[in-house]
Design a protein that fits this description.
heterodimer; A: alpha/beta; seven-stranded mixed β-sheet; two-stranded antiparallel ribbon; 29% helix; globular; B: alpha+beta; 8 helices; 5 strands; 61% helix
């Protein structure tokens, strides 16, 4: 299984472990929009997952994000590895309760709430509770239990 | 006479024994069945509940393929002694993490997941349950619970047998004491009959001590004696208290004369005189 496929699978599942603020994804049939920027491999793997969705669960939708404008309305935004300034810019550009996921060193510092890391050949992720709370999101304790490390958990 | 008494006693004992065994047997069988059924239902429910609890805890571990966390959530089962084994399977049905109790032998963890369901056999309840993460299936859990219902049923059966033996003994003991209340009045009647046979006077009567069938028997018996007395008070019947009559009665010729007494030559009087003569003859 390729790294991009694992990341795509994780991205499709993160949303279920986040407590969204009232009014966002209120009805179970509201699709969860996952935006992917700067990583075409993950985007195409995620596309496969979106196309093979099973009925019953919340529907997923994929949006390939090219610029700040096309990022509007996504619930999960994955920003592929790139220049720090670009990542920071894109993370700051999306407004409201958006789960920002990055995949580079210092990803959490650049505005990510979850950040992919590769640990011993295995894809894992780190999490930042304060970054998520700044956007009105609560990362569930069950999600944090499988995170490699968690920032700002003490409280 | 003693033969008759033994017969009534043994009949009563048989009645008591059969009643006790049948009543206890039916009650015990019913209780055992209800208990067994309830126990198996509980085992089924228990295996599903435990599997669902672990499934809930290990959903993130399966969703994000974290084997260490999966093993950790399975190890919670250490606190549940009746859980023999459990295993988690990923979305594709491959074995992902498993837990085996140290003392679990002969348990084989399936390598591939199977359809959701519960199977209860003589020793174990085995559950296959889906692992869901926000309504999406991320894997499968398999969990085996030992329920011990067969052993409990056998123990129960042993207790029932002991109780049956105890009750039977107590019932027979009690019955032997209580049945004197039944046989006593009957023995009284036969005692009175024997005294009359010995010629101890017509005023001897059995005493009515109970208001039941035996009491009625006493009444009928006494009424019969009264009637006999009334008839023997009438003239001519040959037998009485005098010794010469006894002598007459005791010879075969006298017997014949006795029964041939012409005064009241009806069948009843003949029978009465014959009874009287027999009684005399029977005297030692």
């Amino acid at each position: 299984v390729s790294e991009s496929a694992v990341k795509a699978a994780f991205l499709s599942k993160f949303g279920g472990f986040v407590e969204w603020p009232a009014g966002t994804l209120a009805r179970p049939e509201d699709p969860m929009v996952i935006g992917v920027a700067g990583n075409d491999a993950v985007a195409s793997d995620l596309e496969q997952i979106v196309n093979s969705q099973r009925a019953g669960a919340r529907p997923l939708a994929l949006r390939r994000v090219r610029d700040e404008a096309s990022a509007a309305g996504v619930h999960v935004l994955f920003i592929g590895a790139g220049r720090e300034a670009r990542v920071r810019e894109l993370a700051a550009a999306v407004r409201g309760p958006v789960l920002v996921v990055t995949e580079q060193d210092d990803g959490l510092r650049l505005g990510g709430m979850l950040n992919f890391v590769v640990d011993d050949g295995r894809v894992r992720f780190t999490a930042s509770v304060p970054a998520a709370e700044a956007r009105g999101l609560r990362l569930s304790a069950r999600l944090l239990s499988v995170a490699q490390s968690v920032e700002g958990r003490a409280r | 006479m003693t033969g008759g008494r033994r017969s009534i006693r043994s009949k009563l004992n048989v009645i008591v024994a059969v009643t006790t065994i049948v009543a206890l047997g039916v009650a015990a069988a019913a209780l055992l069945l209800v208990d067994l059924r309830r126990g198996l239902d509980y085992a089924r429910q228990d295996s599903v509940t435990q599997a669902d609890v672990i499934a809930l805890a290990s959903a993130p571990a399966l969703a994000f393929a974290d084997r260490a966390v999966a093993l950790e959530s399975l190890s919670v089962l250490r606190a549940r002694e009746n859980v023999v084994a459990a295993a988690l399977y990923d979305e594709a049905g491959r074995l992902f993490a498993s837990y085996l109790r140290e003392d679990a032998d002969r348990v084989v963890v399936p390598q591939r997941s199977r359809a959701v369901g519960v199977v209860v056999d003589g020793e174990h309840a085995t559950a296959w349950r889906p692992v869901l993460s926000s309504r999406e299936r991320v894997g499968t859990i398999w969990l085996q619970v030992r329920h011990d219902r067969t052993r409990q049923a056998l123990e129960y059966l042993g207790v029932v047998l002991l109780v049956m033996a105890g009750s039977l003994g107590a019932a027979l003991l009690l019955s032997n004491r209580l049945q004197r209340a039944v046989t006593g009045p009957i023995l009284d009647i036969s005692g009175v009959a024997r005294r009359i046979l010995r010629g101890e006077g017509g005023s001897v009567r059995a005493t009515r001590r109970s208001d039941d069938e035996v009491g009625e028997l006493v009444d009928a018996f006494n009424a019969m004696l009264d009637e006999l007395d009334r008839r023997s008070a009438a003239p001519a019947p040959a037998c009485g208290t005098g010794t010469w009559r006894a002598a007459r009665c005791s010879s075969p010729r006298a017997s014949r004369r006795c029964s041939a007494t012409p005064t009241r030559n009806s069948p009843t009087s003949r029978r009465r005189s014959w009874a009287c003569c027999t009684a005399k003859t029977a005297m030692p």
